[in-house]
UniProtKB/TrEMBL annotation:
Superkingdom, taxonomy of origin: Bacteria
Cofactor: pyridoxal 5'-phosphate
Family listed: Belongs to the trans-sulfuration enzymes family.
SUPFAM superfamilies in the cross-refs: PLP-dependent transferases
GO molecular function: transferase activity
Family annotation (PANTHER family): CYSTATHIONINE GAMMA-LYASE-RELATED, TRANS-SULFURATION ENZYME FAMILY MEMBER
Annotated source species: Yinghuangia aomiensis
Keywords, comma-separated and alphabetical: Pyridoxal phosphate, Transferase
Name this protein carries in UniProt: PLP-dependent transferase
InterPro entries, per database record: Cys/Met-Metab_PyrdxlP-dep_enz, PyrdxlP-dep_Trfase, PyrdxlP-dep_Trfase_major, PyrdxlP-dep_Trfase_small
Amino acid sequence: MGMTSPFLQPDSVAVHAGRDDLAALGVHALPIDLSSTNPLPDIELGGLSYESMATGGAPHPEGGAVYARLWNPTVARLESALARLEHTPEAVAFASGMAALTAAVLAMTAEGRRHVVAVRPMYGGTDHLLGSGLLGAEVTYCDPDGIRAALRPGATALVVLETPANPTLDLVDIRAAVDAADGVPVLVDNTFATPVLQNPADLGAALVLHSATKYLGGHGDVVAGVIACGSEHAAALRRVRAVTGALLHPLGAYLVHRGLATLPIRVRAQQEGAARVAAWLGGHPDVVDVHYPELGDLVGPGRQMRGTGAMLAVRLRGGYAQAQQVTSAVRLFTHAVSLGGVDSLIQHPAALTHRPVPPEARPSADLLRLSIGLEDPRDLIADLARGLGAGVSGAVTGVREEAGAGAA
Ligand SMILES: *Cc1c(COP(=O)(O)O)cnc(C)c1O
C-alpha cells in the first residue's frame, strides 16, 4: 500500500491513512474482503505463503492469503492506518482488546521469562486476565513507583500499564515508567487517551494497545483490539494471532477504519463536553471529588497527553445508594459499560467493569465512571442534575425535562 505524504497533519492522516491505493483500485470507499479462503496459484507458492504467515510474516506476493485466519487485506488496511496514527512501523488487529492483550503476553513471554509486571489501577478485565494464570504468566502488581522493585532480572518479559487508567483516570508518566522498566518492553494501554491525545511509542513504549471497541470504533457497534508496535513484536503477535485464531473480522476492521476518519474531531468535541460536565460536577454538593486528568506536567499542549480527554469519574457523597439512584434516573446517559462512543454512558466500576478485581484493588463503591459523548453538555448536565436528585435541581437553570427524550 502506498503512503500519502509523511508530512500530513494528524487530522489528515486520520482521514486518509490506509486508503492510499483506493483511487488506483477505482473505488472510493474502503473495500471489504470477506473470503474465508483464497484460491492458490500452485502448491509451492501457496505453501511459501502459508509458511511466511504462520511465522508472523506477510503473504508471499504471489502466494496469496491462503486462509482468512492467517491474513485478511481489510484488516491489514486498518493496521497500516493505526500504525501511522500511533507513529509505529506496524500494528496488529485482534478480535477484541482482551484478545490483543492475550496475544501480547503469549508473544512476549517464553520459557524462563514468564514474569509480567502490571501497574494498577487498570481495566478490570486486564487485571483479571493477568491474574488468572490462564496465560502461564506470573504477575506482580505494583503502583507506578514500584515498577523497578517489581522487576525480576532475566525473568520479567513485559510491563503493562494504562494511562489514564480505567476507571480512576490516574496518570502514569510513560517516560519514567519506561526508564524504570530498565529495558523490559513496556505495553501501554492507550484506550482512554487515543492517538489523538497521546502517542506512547514516542515516549518509549514498545507496544501500544487499544480496545478499538471504544474511541477508535467510536459508535458502539464493534468489538476490536489493536496493538501498534515495531516490526519484530508485530511478527511475534501475528504468529500468535494466526495459531490461536484471534484475527479481527473484516467487517469489524471496516467499521473501526471508518471510525478513524472522525476520531480527532470526536475526541476534541467530547473532550470539550467532558470539561464542562467535570466543572459542573466539581461544584455539586453531592460530589466528593471528580477524577479527571488535570492540566500540568503530564497533561496539556506539548505534554505526554495533549488534552484532558473525555472520560471522568465521580465519587458520590451518598455512596452506592446514590450511585444506584443516579444510574437509574438518567435518561440521556445510557446506563451501560463500555466507553468512547458518540453517546454518553455511565456505569458503576466496582459492580461491573472491575468486578473481577480483588477487593483490595477494586474501585470504591461510591464511584461512577462517565464516558462523555457528543451531546450538548447542557443536556448532559441537566440529566445528571435530575439523577443526583432533589435539592440540586434549583442550581441548574433551564433544566428541560425532555432532555432525555432522545436517549437510546
Ligand atoms: C474495554 C477495555 C479493554 C478491553 O477491550 P475489549 O475490546 O472489551 O476486549 C482494555 N483496556 C481498556 C482500558 C478498556 O477500557
